[in-house]
Amino acid sequence: QVQLVESGGGLVQAGASLRLSCAASGRTFSIYNMGWFRQAPGKEREFVTRISPNGDIAYYADFVNGRFTISRDNAKKMVYLQMNSLEPDDTAVYYCAAARNIPNCDYWGQGTQVTVSS
Questions:
Q1: I need a surface site. Which of 23, 37, 66, 85 has the fewest CB within 10 A?
Q2: What Rg do the C-alpha atoms of the chain give, in angstroms?
């Protein structure tokens, strides 16, 4: 079992930065691919980024366009999403997820709201 708790969301102006954190519990954290998804009002949940179990490979959605960076610290059981140059279209609830086998996510956090004003 893995429990995930996101934090770090908030209200910012366009162009600002935010760093989201995802704290995991459970003994097997280091075997999971970890990812971030987001869901904007009235839209379906979409993939943002994911990182391999040992942190050596990361993938990003096209819309990220070099603005976001995912990282993880297996010793601390933490995953981070550094978001720079935020845009109003980045407004969404951001979810952390753990996947043993891509693309199936086994565990989800409760989400953290990110709101970007223009």
A1: 66
A2: 13
Q: How many CA atoms lie within 13 A of 91 on its CB side?
A: 12
Complete DSSP assignment for 1-58: --EEEEE--EEEETT--EEEEEEEESTTGGGSEEEEEEE-TTS--EEEEEE-TTSS-E
Q: In this predicted model, what pLDDT tens digit does every residue of 27-54 receive, in sequence order?
A: 789 999 999 999 999 999 999 999 999 9
How far does Cα 85 stand from its chain's mean position? 16
Structure tokens of 107?
């565990």
CA distance 108 to 46: 13
Q: What is the pLDDT of residues 61-89, one digit of tens each?
A: 999 999 999 999 999 999 999 999 999 99
Output the six-digit token pair for 28.
């097997």
CA 21, 26, 27, 30: dihedral to nearest 10 degrees?
-30
